[in-house]
């Protein structure tokens, strides 16, 4: 298990990697429809060889007091986070296994026609993850799908919270919420 000192150093390292790899300056329209002077592209970070293991370990530290059997969220942003957490849990001594799942944006039209891919989550305790939270709309889409699938949500964890209403929206749905980093951690 990661010690508090290790977690603090790793969080500082992750923040530096997000600043270096993921922060893009310039006018952008976010998925929420809001405009910003910068974009935090977490896929550049969560799919990076050095950052992905940090993400997995730090999400495990952030959620250490939450008991969950599976982790996932809305594709595409949540996918590498869920995989990183799955792998981090797998190397923790005495940790229970954690499966990953993917919530599609719409039900697949062919094959099994599933909205949620991966091991069945019905009746299981799950962690829903997101890369960057703005209004909470994307992660709440996943939350609702996971609830409809019969899973119990222990909480939502995000890598970067833009502090623009996501926390409030998620908590209004009765779901606990935590973030690894905020915009001040990124110098924004």
TrEMBL record:
Binding site for orotate: 134, 162
Chain segments annotated as coiled-coil in the UniProt record: none
Positions of 5-phospho-alpha-D-ribose 1-diphosphate binding: 104-105, 108, 110, 130-138
InterPro entries given in the database record: OPRT, Or_phspho_trans_dom, PRTase_dom
Gene Ontology MF terms: orotate phosphoribosyltransferase activity
Signal peptide: none
Broad class of enzyme this protein falls into: transferase
Domain of life of the organism encoding this protein: Bacteria
Residues in Phosphoribosyltransferase domain copies: 116-167
One Pfam family from the record: Pribosyltran
Pathway terms, separated by semicolons: Pyrimidine metabolism; UMP biosynthesis via de novo pathway; UMP from orotate: step 1/2
Keywords: Glycosyltransferase, Magnesium, Pyrimidine biosynthesis, Transferase
Catalytic activity as recorded in UniProt: orotidine 5'-phosphate + diphosphate = orotate + 5-phospho-alpha-D-ribose 1-diphosphate
Cofactor dependence: Mg(2+)
Its EC number(s): 2.4.2.10
Similarity field: Belongs to the purine/pyrimidine phosphoribosyltransferase family. PyrE subfamily.
HAMAP family named among the record's database cross-references: PyrE
Quaternary data: Homodimer.
Function: Catalyzes the transfer of a ribosyl phosphate group from 5-phosphoribose 1-diphosphate to orotate, leading to the formation of orotidine monophosphate (OMP).
Entry protein name: Orotate phosphoribosyltransferase
Organism of derivation: Pseudonocardia oceani
Originating gene: pyrE
């Amino acid at each position: 298990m990661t010690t508090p000192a290790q977690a603090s150093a790793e969080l500082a390292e992750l923040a530096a990697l997000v600043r270096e790899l993921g922060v893009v300056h310039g006018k952008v329209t976010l998925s929420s429809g809001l405009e910003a002077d910068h974009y935090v592209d977490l896929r550049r970070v969560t799919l990076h060889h050095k950052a992905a293991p940090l993400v997995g370990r730090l999400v495990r530290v952030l959620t250490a007091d939450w008991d969950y059997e599976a982790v996932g969220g809305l594709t595409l942003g949540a996918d590498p986070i869920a995989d990183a957490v799955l792998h981090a849990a797998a190397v923790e001594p005495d940790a229970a296994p954690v499966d990953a799942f993917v919530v599609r944006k719409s039900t697949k039209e062919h094959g099994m026609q599933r909205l949620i891919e991966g091991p069945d989550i019905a009746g299981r305790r799950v962690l829903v993850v997101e890369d960057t939270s703005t209004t909470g709309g994307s992660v709440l889409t996943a939350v609702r799908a996971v609830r409809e699938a019969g899973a119990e949500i222990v909480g939502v964890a995000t890598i970067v919270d833009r502090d623009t209403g996501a926390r409030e929206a998620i908590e209004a749905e009765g779901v606990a919420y935590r973030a690894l980093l905020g915009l001040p951690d990124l110098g924004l």
